[in-house]
């Protein structure tokens, strides 16, 4: 990519897609600003994002997906602003999100999913605000949500599901407001909802289901009102069981 090393700004989108021989992105080192999307997609031999070290701003979406050999995002540590969505998905060898540390706000949604070796969300520590929804799912080795500790507001729904090794929701402790649905489901090893203690507002539904080792609802104590429906079902036998609704008849 040496012939591109004079480019300093991209007004639209930068797509790196379907390049079977690239192992790094050296040659794009001069770019500091992307006005549209930055998409790194389906580059089967890419192991590092070296070459993107100069980027500070992504005007719309940042998407990194289906890069089978990618092990690190460290070269993205200059990015401070993502105007649209942040999506990190289907990167089979990625173990950490270190490199995203500089991002403080995401204007759209955050998707972290199907990263088979991801064990921690460390690297998202700088985030305070998610404008859209936050979805963490199908990360089979993820054991903790630490790294999300700085987030206080999720503008739309918050969904944590199908994380087979996740035992706790600690890391969500700073969140006070969920603008849509709060959903926790299909987490096979989850034993507690502690970590949701700070939430005082849920504007959509509250759904806690199919968590076979969850035995109590401690962690929901601070929620006075749910804007939509409440669904609590198919968890372990709760101790004590939730009270029946006012119009429930035996």
TrEMBL record:
Biased segments, Pro residues type: 238-250
UniProt superkingdom: Eukaryota
Localisation: Secreted, Cell wall
The entry's keywords: Cell wall, Glycoprotein, Secreted, Signal
Region described as Disordered: spans on this chain: 231-250
Coiled coil: none
Keyword Glycoprotein carried by entry: yes
UniProt cross-references to PANTHER family, sorted A to Z: RECEPTOR PROTEIN-TYROSINE KINASE, SPORULATION-SPECIFIC PROTEIN-RELATED
Signal peptide residue numbers: none
InterPro entries recorded: CWI-Assembly_Regulator, Rcpt_L-dom_sf
Protein's name in the database: Receptor L-domain domain-containing protein
